[in-house]
């Protein structure tokens, strides 16, 4: 049998692994009616793969004339559930397999390599006991990819998963089968629990399964799917098997992750149907069905598993309810899009991602509509409320970020959160500016601005108001300046807001400086009053203490209602010494706490209203 092993394995086994060597040898032994199989693994150390050898012994029928002829002819099979190519995996990992088989008083010996052509030796022996041994030598790879391919416990679990349908069938028939796995190594590794040990898998000890049948809706009108399952509490060993039974082996199907079940459970779900017969690919790793049928199959499988888990493990329902409620509370704009039922424990991140995707698709559906039906119109109102809720949630993030500001932060840290420094924002049709500045922290009406100048020169501010070129360079820069007008080119007069910020923890003199700065801004801007400016609001945001409050009261400021501290005084500003004309200007001085808490209160009110609105819509 001259075969290009490398090409053949790539063709038939796209994702080979060392554990497939065990699987194929055990499958052949069970086919030969073995009741005892022993796997012996020897390696000097995990990082010395060249020393790896494997011996697999069984007491099956052995390589009698019929079995040897089948083995010698690649791809010749007797049943639909056999592929006739599994032994190719042996030569993908080892240069040779020395086979010795005793059966019916005879011993057959041969060396299985890529050049195998059926050559063998056969002699008579006295013993009547059957024994077949496969010795794998000459490991081809430069490393072993995982400790799990050598550790008896991991190999045992892999064998159980792969052959569970076959083993369960043997158990139901009362057949005996014991598989021993022994590792011998010279160098242990405690970190990876890698050391010489032996494990046993006894078919009679695998759990009994319960059975449920359900229609194969979407796959077949008449066929039913059979689900065999077991759910047991076991604090010492968490097992999760979700697989489809195909030709007496399993093809794992990830319905949910191991993290989706509470710790301390052994869970097995196996799906059977005649629909799957002969539907495994050559490597028995994937189903050969239409992609749409595979999706339908997974959905049906998942729905049935979900019902059983929720019934058998009540804590799953309670935990899922808690996760869903927390998501609704944290992301109210996505309420109604979160899955109420899930297979196993809800994955918070996956649930959120799925809800966001549904919300986006709902938005897209409305925006792509050329005209809206009544139902679509109502849906558009609901989506608008959700979008507004999302924006209010964004505001909460900004508020929480400002709450973290302390005296160690610079004034620039506060400034950049409210409006990024040295930036100019011009109102446009785009809504992106809602997320690039946070003038709403002062008052929501200030989001109707025409222009916001953040730490820009006064000359630039005056130019924006007067719409005329100003060659005069005025160095003094207000922290934040906001201009209001529906259309400055048509409106003769505009409204202006000036904001000065001070970092936390300043002394009294620095706190009082905010009033002086606001008055200086007023003198510059009032030169355009009343021809270009009709109203101006001046705000100073500063850290308060008792000493500063006394200072403001001495200056005849009056305290206003607020969640924090706000003082107000109407000042008279004199523009020049010649005429000494006095223009009244109102100055607000507010504490950082008032600035923050008043914004938080407004935001909280909006959010509660929107939450109630969304609840009513559902």
Notable features of this structure?
alpha+beta, eight-stranded mixed beta sheet, 14 helices, ATP-binding protein, Heat Shock Protein 90, 4 domains, 618 residues, HATPase_C_sf
How is this structure best described in words?
InterPro entries: HATPase_C_sf (IPR036890). It comes from Chryseosolibacter indicus. It holds the Pfam family HATPase_c_3. This is ATP-binding protein. The protein has helices at residues 5-12, 19-31, 65-72, 88-93, 152-173, 291-312, 314-330, 348-367, 374-403, 411-418, 458-466, 508-525, 546-554, 592-617, and strands at 36-43, 53-58, 94-103, 106-112, 121-124, 131-139, 178-185, 197-202, 210-215, 224-233, 239-246, 249-252, 265-272, 424-426, 451-454, 480-484, 494-501, 533-542, 558-560, 566-574, 582-591. The protein is α+β, with helices and mostly antiparallel strands and 618 residues long. It has 4 domains: 5-205, Heat Shock Protein 90; 210-312; 315-367, no CATH class; 405-598, no CATH class. The strands form 3 sheets. Strands 5-4-3-6-2-1-7-8 form an 8-stranded mixed sheet. The protein has an 8-stranded mixed sheet with strand order 14-15-16-17-18-21-20-19. Strand 3 (94-103) and strand 4 (106-112) form a beta hairpin. Helix 2 (19-31) runs parallel beside helix 5 and helix 9 (374-403) runs antiparallel to helix 14 (592-617). It is elongated, with a radius of gyration of 39 Å.
């Amino acid at each position: 049998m001259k075969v290009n092993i490398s090409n053949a394995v790539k063709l038939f086994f796209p994702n080979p692994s060392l554990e497939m060597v065990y699987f194929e040898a055990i499958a052949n032994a069970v086919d030969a009616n073995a009741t005892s199989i022993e796997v012996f693994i020897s390696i000097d150390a995990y990082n010395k793969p060249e020393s790896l050898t494997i011996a697999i012994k069984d007491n099956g029928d052995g390589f009698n004339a019929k079995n040897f002829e089948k083995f010698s002819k690649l791809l010749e099979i007797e049943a639909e559930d056999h592929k006739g190519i599994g032994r190719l995996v042996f030569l993908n990992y080892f240069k040779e397999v020395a086979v010795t088989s005793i059966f019916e008083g005879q011993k057959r010996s041969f060396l299985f390599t890529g050049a195998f052509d059926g050559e063998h030796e056969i002699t008579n022996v006295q013993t009547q006991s059957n024994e077949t041994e496969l010795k794998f030598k000459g490991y081809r790879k430069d490393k072993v990819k995982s400790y799990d391919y050598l550790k008896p416990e991991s190999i045992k679990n892999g064998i159980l998963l792969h052959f569970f349908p076959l083993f369960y069938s043997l158990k139901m028939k009362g057949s005996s089968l014991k598989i021993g796995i022994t590792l011998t190594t010279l160098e242990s590794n405690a970190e990876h629990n890698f050391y010489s040990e032996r494990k046993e898998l006894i078919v009679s000890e695998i759990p009994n399964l319960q059975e449920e049948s359900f229609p194969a809706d979407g796959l077949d009108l008449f066929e039913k799917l059979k689900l065999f399952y077991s759910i047991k509490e076991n604090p010492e060993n968490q097992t999760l098997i979700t697989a489809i039974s195909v030709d007496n082996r399993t093809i794992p199907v990830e319905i949910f992750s191991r993290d989706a079940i509470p710790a301390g459970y052994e869970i097995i779900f196996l799906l059977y149907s005649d629909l799957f017969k002969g539907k495994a690919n050559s490597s028995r790793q994937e189903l050969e069905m239409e992609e749409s049928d595979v999706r339908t199959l997974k959905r049906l499988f998942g729905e049935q598993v979900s019902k059983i888990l929720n019934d058998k493990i009540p804590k799953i329902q309670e935990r899922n309810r808690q996760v869903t409620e927390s998501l609704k509370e944290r992301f109210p704009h996505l309420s109604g899009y979160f899955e109420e039922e899930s297979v196993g424990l809800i994955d918070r991140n996956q649930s959120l991602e799925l809800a966001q995707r549904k919300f986006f698709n709902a938005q897209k559906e409305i925006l792509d509509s050329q005209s809206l039906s009544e139902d679509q119109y109502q849906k558009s109102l609901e989506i608008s409320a959700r979008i507004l809720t999302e924006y209010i949630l964004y505001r909460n993030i900004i508020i929480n970020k400002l709450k973290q500001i302390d005296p160690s932060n610079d004034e620039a840290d506060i400034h950049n959160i409210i409006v990024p420094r040295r930036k100019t924002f011009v109102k446009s049709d785009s809504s992106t500016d809602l997320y690039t500045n946070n003038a709403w922290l002062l008052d929501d009406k200030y989001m109707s601005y025409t222009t916001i100048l953040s730490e820009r020169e006064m000359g630039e501010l005056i130019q924006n108001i007067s719409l005329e070129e100003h060659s005069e360079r005025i160095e003094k820069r207000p922290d934040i300046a906001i201009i209001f007008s529906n259309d400055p080119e048509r409106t003769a007069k505009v409204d202006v807001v000036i904001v000065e910020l001070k970092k936390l923890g300043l002394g009294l003199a620095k706190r009082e400086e905010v009033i002086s700065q606001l008055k200086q801004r007023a003198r510059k801007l009032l030169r355009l009053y009343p021809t270009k400016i009709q109203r101006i609001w001046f705000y100073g945001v500063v850290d308060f203490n008792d000493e500063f409050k006394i200072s403001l009261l001495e200056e005849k400021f009056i305290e206003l209602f607020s969640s924090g501290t706000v003082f107000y005084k109407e000042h008279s500003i004199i523009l020049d010494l010649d005429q000494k004309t006095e223009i009244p200007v109102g100055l607000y001085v507010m504490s950082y706490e008032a600035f923050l808490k008043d914004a938080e209160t407004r935001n909280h009110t909006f959010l509660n209203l929107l939450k109630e609105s969304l609840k009513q819509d559902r």
